[in-house]
Amino acid sequence: MATGADPGGLRARLRRLAGGELILLGALAVAAGLLLRAWWRTGGLFPGVIGLAVLAVAGMTFLAALRRAGFEGDGPAVGVVEIDEGRLLYLASDGGGWIARDMLVRVEIAVTAAGPVWRLTAPDARLEVPVDAGGAGGIADLVAGLEGARLDRAAAAIAQGHSALVWTATADLTLEQRGTPQ
Fold first, then answer.
1. Is 107:149 a contact under the CB 8 Å cutoff?
2. Helix/strand/coil for 111
């Protein structure tokens, strides 16, 4: 690895973390530190256990925020994404649409003239959502529920500016097996 290399785009991900997430992480870390200090000074078991639990929550929150930041673009938001009960709704001034997770047959990151997009394909619909759209980071959470989804490919494709297949339905996986009544 070359000197100064940023493995996995860690610096870029940290820059994209929302201020609220950083404030929460800071507060949790301070609380954990205070509780661990109280445990160290008093020798009591309770403050130490609570401090370790708060520290674990801070660590999990940081990892979740870091993972989600890998799916956010750097440009201005184009449209808004809403996800409710497995249905993705994309609202934009130039169109938009909706698609249900249970109906997906293919998910990919595609590079277009406007920048990278999530391309979500169902048997009767295709939806392209810019990675810069407001709330588009939630698409990663939606896709994570699909068996065999390769979110690492999506993050790498967004960071490096190339297309990548993230998930595809297998031929033997019927709609009924995916939880969709026929």
1. yes
2. strand
Give tens-digit pLDDT for 127-142.
Answer: 999 988 888 888 988 8
* Alpha carbons 168 and 147: distance in angstroms, whole number: 9
CB-CB contact of 80 with 157 (8 Å): no
- For the chain, give percent helix, strand, coil, nearest 5: 45, 25, 30
Amino acid at 171: A
- For residue 24, give Cα distances in angstroms to 38, 42, 49, 56, 101: 21, 27, 20, 13, 30
Q: Which has the higher per-residue pLDDT, 120 or 160? A: 120
**Beta-bridge partners for 89:** 82, 98
